[in-house]
Structure formats: structure tokens, C-alpha cells
Here is the input.
Amino acid sequence: MALFCRTAALLLKPGALSSTLSVARQYSAGGQYEYILVEKRGENQDVGYIQLNRPKALNALCDGLMLELGKALDAFEADGTVGAIVLTGSDRAFAAGADIKEMQNRTFQECYAGNFLAHWNRVSTIRKPVIAAVNGFALGGGCELAMMCDIIFAGEKAQFGQPEILLGTIPGAGGTQRLTRAVGKSLAMEMVLTGDRITAQEAKQSAYELTLAEGNRLEKRLFHSTFATEDRKEGMTAFVEKRKANFKDQ
Ligand code: CAA
Here is the structure.
């Protein structure tokens, strides 16, 4: 499903971004979107273009951003003139993951009862091809979001990783399942168990085929259950307080 390619030059040409931004502002001038820029691009205006736009938080995927992304995807899905969708971030970050500051004080009960992150998979259910143009950090939920897309074009500065273990939790939006398919079990295990990042070149490996649905359900429940641990709280609190986490295996 996810194909890691060498360059995003086509989509991230110097100068292209500023003209994109001005058109995108016009497109979202109605104040519809706060966290993303949305426009139609291409010679025939048939490419739906969505840029994640929370630069100060490295495009961390807060609830508001994910709701807006769902809305924009729905609009492009319904627009008969749009043939494909491009999802991108900035040179520095595609997305640095789910918003840790928002998650920090969540409880197990809230996560489990509310099926936290359940709505994140909209990207993977869109029927039109979605292309992720990735540069900079694609970490945690950012890596998972990219892998939900049909194709990944990765720039030279792209870094993929699932660093949730460093926060005392696990990937919760398909990372354990899709990463295995994208880069193979061995490298996926190494990344998920160490939090180490890889470049686009390193990501190019043969794919594994697994049944996604069961794996994703199990993963979601395990992710929720990390919110019942002291270490998950400590990991996220340490990040917010800019200090090293003091894990106690509890
Ligand atoms: N959530 C909330 N804020 C984040 C964030 C995140 N995931 N990632 C970065 N930020 C914020 C930082 O808090 C910081 O904000 P302030 O200036 O207000 O403190 C700002 O973005 C810039 O970040 P840094 O100063 O840390 O920048 P850096 O260049 O030193 O480091 C980084 C960059 C390596 C990406 C580092 O920010 C980092 O490790 N981020 C967290 C990555 C992560 O753990 N992602 C997984 C989240 S959990 C998840 O996604 C679960 C899931 O499966 C859905």
C-alpha cells in the first residue's frame, strides 16, 4: 500500500510553496479551516491539495486539525472535478505525531469509551488516490497518516519513525500494522521498540501482506490501555516539561 519514493521535488519545488499558500488562503478565506490550507491545483484544477499548517507545533495532529482534515477530504471526495488528492506538510515537518499536549491528561476510560483516534482513518477510506508528499519529521501519528495514503513521495529530509515508546505508549493509528507492511517486520519491530527514525532510502524494503482489520483493532485497544499506566503519563508529561522521562515500568 505505502510506497516510499526518493524525492518530492515535483511537489515541493522552491517557490511553489509561496504561490500555493496565497491561493490556499483565498480558497480557505471563509475561515473554514484553521489548521490546514486547502486548494485545487494542476492545469485542470483537478488535484485536491491539502497542506497541514501548524508550523509552531511541527504540525502535531490535534483534534481540530484531524477534524478539518476529515472535512477537506470529504469535500474533495464529493467534488467530481477532483481526481486525486495530495496531502503534505512543510519542509521541516510532515507531522510530528498526535498532539502530546492534548493527550497528556487523558485517562484510560476516556480513550476506551470514546474510542480515541477512531476517526483518524478517514484518509484510508477515501476512494480517490491520496498521495502523501513528505519532508522533515513524519513521526508517530504523522508516520501513520502518511502510511494511510496510497503513495508516499518522500523528500531528502524526510524522517519516518514511531517514537511512541519514548512516551510510554504504542502507535495507535495503524503504525504497528502498516509499518510492517511498508518496511518489513524486522525493521518495523526495531523502529517501534527503539523509537529510532529512518530515512526514505532506508524505508525501501519489500512489503508484507497482513490482514489489517484485526491487527488495527487489537492495536487500538493496546494503545488505549497504555493510558492506564504511570509510564505513559510520565512520558508525555516529561515531553511537555522538556525533561527526560523517568520510567518505572508501571
Ligand atoms: N505534540 C505536541 N507538540 C509537539 C509535538 C507533538 N507531537 N511535537 C512537537 N511539538 C511541539 C513542541 O512541544 C514545541 O513546542 P513549544 O515550542 O511550544 O515547546 C514545538 O513543537 C517544536 O518542537 P521541539 O522544540 O521539540 O523541536 P525539535 O526540533 O527540538 O524536535 C522533534 C523535533 C524531534 C519532532 C520533537 O519535537 C519530538 O520528539 N516530538 C514528538 C514526536 C513524538 O513523540 N510523536 C509521537 C506522538 S504520540 C502519537 O502520535 C500516538 C499515535 O500513534 C497516534
In short: The beta strands are 4-5, 36-41, 47-52, 84-88, 93-95, 130-134, 137-139, 151-154, 159-161, 198-199. The first strand starts at residue 4 and ends at 5. The longest helix spans residues 63-78. Residues 36-209 form a domain with the 2-enoyl-CoA Hydratase; Chain A, domain 1 fold (CATH 3.90.226.10).
